[in-house]
Amino acid sequence: MSKKGIILMNLGSPDSTLVKDVKRYLDEFLMDERVIDYPYLFRALLVKGIIVPFRSPKSAKAYQSVWTKEGSPLMVISEQLRSAVQERVSEPVVLAMRYGNPTPKAAYDQLLKMDPDIDEVVLVPLYPHYAMSSYETAVEYAKEIYREEKYTFRLTIIPPYYREEEYLNALAESLKPYLEQEYDHLLFSFHGVPERHIRKGDTTRCHCLKVENCCEKDSPAHAFCYSHQCKKTIQLVAEKLDLPEEKYSVSFQSRLGREEWLKPYTAKRLEELPKEGIKKLLVACPAFVSDCLETLEEIAVEGKETFMHAGGESFTMIPCLNTHPAWVGTIVNYASLTY
Question: Nearest Cα to 142, choosing from 105, 113, 114, 112?
Fold first, then answer.
């Protein structure tokens, strides 16, 4: 029998809300060539000379507004998820983060300390959709450390599950209670990415953002297309929930810089929706499986303020999957599969 260990891998968080810790975290995050994919010297000048020095104090204040006594929401929820999964499986389960702590090396070493005879590690990226700046960078970093340290166990990686039945059922179940209240519209706000990333990830070099309605037309490019995968998730979830097309829409948040990102932009839609007669709004953020700065501050605070100031009457942010029982069960089942 194979002796297995499980790693749940998420994005990460600063160690504290101190500006120095936020600065260190943003530097690691934004210097990742899969996040800002400019040549190194230009990226270093942009990140270290402009973005990080000016953004760190503002980001530190934002983190302070959502930080809990146990730590950052993302880290706290990720640990709660790990614990919930551990209760359901006999194999050891640990956390790893793409940026900050715990690192993939720390996770690998922790598993081996817990059981030196482990011969397979199952990595479960907590990213349902494939994007260069999320799923890809996390997986490639974990693989890089695995190779460098010459671990002898087999590394098994769970592929994107944006259209897998169990994930879709879990997402639908998490949304259902909120659909019982009176509402005008449900906005699915995904983390945005530059359009350049979408074109760069197009394996055909002739489909993404080049063909009309490219996300809806079959193409091998969809295996690596974040835009298609986000929209496919929502199409399938809407079918499960019997949502009429006019009752929901998709937008993209967290734009950085001036270049074109995936549209429509969430911030702009929150300004426009009240003028379109949508006064009671629900917002869900399916790109994230754990609530974090982008959901708790950017959407629940800033987004709500934008919507209400534009004439909205009620605004409800639906929590991420977090530790929903159906989501815990989904991870347990994924970790037990062999790919």
Answer: 105
Rounded to whole angstroms, how far apart are CA atoms 51 and 208?
29
Any idea which architecture 4-161+325-336 has in CATH? 3-Layer(aba) Sandwich (3.40)
CA dist 309 and 279 (Å) reads: 11
Among 48, 81, 139, smallest CA distance to 292 is for 81
Q: Say what the pLDDT of residue 339 is.
A: 43
pTM for the whole structure:
0.96
pLDDT score of 2: 74
Cα radius of gyration rounded to whole Å, the chain: 20
Compute the distance between CA of residue 32 and CA of residue 206 in angstroms, rounded to an integer.
27
In this predicted structure, the answer to whether residue 13 has a pLDDT above a threshold of 90 is yes
Q: What is the pLDDT of residues 132-180, one digit of tens each?
A: 999 999 999 999 999 999 999 999 999 999 999 999 999 999 999 999 9
Residues 307 and 273: beta-carbon distance below 8 Å: yes
> Any idea which architecture 165-317 has in CATH?
3-Layer(aba) Sandwich (3.40)
Q: Is the sign of the CA dihedral 8, 13, 15, 20 positive or negative? A: positive
Using the predicted structure, report yes or no on whether residue 335 has a pLDDT greater than 90: no
Where do the structural domains in the chain lie, given as residue ranges? 4-161+325-336, 165-317
Which stretches within the chain are classed as H helix? 19-30, 40-46, 52-66, 73-86, 104-114, 137-149, 165-179, 195-200, 226-241, 266-272, 293-296, 304-309, 325-336
